[in-house]
């Protein structure tokens, strides 16, 4: 007696594996997490470096190039939206170009810089991303990716100011 569909179990296994791979790719890479207890952000206070401790529920994380003057205009535009700005100079020069209350110039390690560049998929500078405080862990901030496959899956989520 012949079996009805001998290739059906193989097709089911292939479809299951593809679905598991897509779910894994989405669930573990759809958001970037910044944990201020593990990722060290330093700020200059009174001439000495100290650890940055977040105090706001939202931050506008901007990575920019301090050697290009037109990027100061970009940062100035992002300062107008009432969300505190965390400025990360790509070259880590440490020159605070703004003395405004909402602007925090932070320095990070090169390992963390590479993590942010890879996580946010940064190809050009300047780039800004809104990060939001996690409800369960106040020292952890997240940002949902909103491009490509993630844009389709996160269509209900708004990454801008609430």
Number of domains: 1
Rg over C-alpha atoms, rounded to the nearest angstrom? 21 Å
Pick out the low-confidence regions: none
Query: What is the architecture at the second tier of CATH?
Result: 3-Layer(aba) Sandwich
Description:
- This protein has helices spanning 8-29, 70-79, 110-120, 149-153; strands spanning 31-35, 41-45, 48-51, 58-64, 85-89, 103-108, 127-133, 140-144.
- The protein has 162 residues and is of the alpha+beta class.
- It is elongated, with a radius of gyration of 21 Å.
Topology:
Blueprint: H1 8-29, E1 31-35, E2 41-45, E3 48-51, E4 58-64, H2 70-79, E5 85-89, E6 103-108, H3 110-120, E7 127-133, E8 140-144, H4 149-153
Parallel strand pairs: 4-5, 5-6
Antiparallel strand pairs: 1-8, 2-3, 2-6, 4-7, 7-8
